[in-house]
Design brief:
By secondary structure, the protein is an alpha+beta fold. Helix content is about 35%, strand content about 25%. Strands 7-8-6-5-4-3-2-1-9 form a nine-stranded mixed sheet. Helix 2 (about 60-65) crosses helix 4 and helix 7 (about 150-170) packs across helix 9. The longest helix has 17 residues, at about 150-170. The relative contact order is 0.19. N-acetyltransferase that mediates the acetylation of the N-terminal residues of alpha- and beta-tubulin.
């Protein structure tokens, strides 16, 4: 679900982020197994809960992307609602993407809110190198301005990295960030990423983290509070499950 990578043609100028929470990515298409691995996965953390991107999330997502600020940050054009539904279907079925919608854990679990009332952004992994399935490009978008700069993007990114390592076999992560977006660059450096390249044409910085044994243990420590649950079971009423 998100940002320039969703909409912009390959090679488009990546987005500039805000408060470390919005990063745009360009990516390549792969012909591999469809990435439906997370279609029934919920990852519940302290601040954020990650759920699969479904058609129920599209209207709120579509609302976000009417924002001129988000269009600018994600280098994207506004889509019609029907185009947004088509995009969601392609995201569900595409072989080279894994995406979660980011929810506010406190609102979602505490008040039993519908997903769409608790949505704050999304987080994505792209398999960008046909020669190297262990390389994943990561992107985070915290679309709700009131949630930026509060650690929601950081926790969502760590949770996605841990999921990618455990479930997708990713051992190398990259993030491509606009050069002016110092907050995002700073956030990824705090997550042990190192700057490896600068593209002056697209005015973007590439940061990278190779997951050594030491980094794997650190990632595990950072995310050992995360609970994995079944999305279907959480969405069904209890009495249905009992019958």
């Amino acid at each position: 679900a998100s940002s320039g990578s969703q909409r912009a043609p390959e090679g488009a100028i990546p987005s500039l982020g805000h408060a470390g929470d919005i990063i745009g990515v360009s990516h390549l298409s792969l012909s591999a197994e469809a990435m439906k691995i997370n279609q029934n996965t919920v990852l519940q953390g302290q601040k954020v809960t990650l759920v699969p991107y479904t058609s129920a999330h599209v209207p709120r997502y579509h609302e976000w992307m009417q924002s001129e600020e988000l269009q600018r940050l994600t280098a994207s054009e506004p889509l019609s609602l029907e185009q947004e539904y088509e995009m969601q279907r392609s995201w569900r079925d595409d072989a080279d993407k894994c995406t979660f919608i980011v929810l506010d854990t406190e609102r979602w679990s505490g008040q039993a809110c519908a997903d769409e009332d608790c949505m704050v952004g999304d987080v994505n992994l792209f398999l960008t190198d046909t020669e190297d399935p262990t390389l994943g490009e990561i992107e985070i978008m915290i679309a709700e301005p009131s949630y930026r700069g509060r650690g929601f993007g950081k926790e969502a990114t760590l949770m996605m990295m841990s999921y990618g390592k455990r479930n997708l076999g990713i051992t190398k992560f990259e993030a491509k960030i606009g050069q002016e977006n110092e907050a995002s660059i700073c956030m990824f450096k705090k997550l042990h990423f190192n700057e490896v390249a600068v593209n002056s044409i697209f005015q973007e910085v590439t940061l990278r983290l190779d997951v050594s044994d030491q980094e794997r243990r650190w990632l595990l420590e950072q995310t050992n509070h995360v609970k994995e649950k079944s999305y279907v079971e959480l969405k069904l009423p209890a009495e249905v499950l009992e019958t």
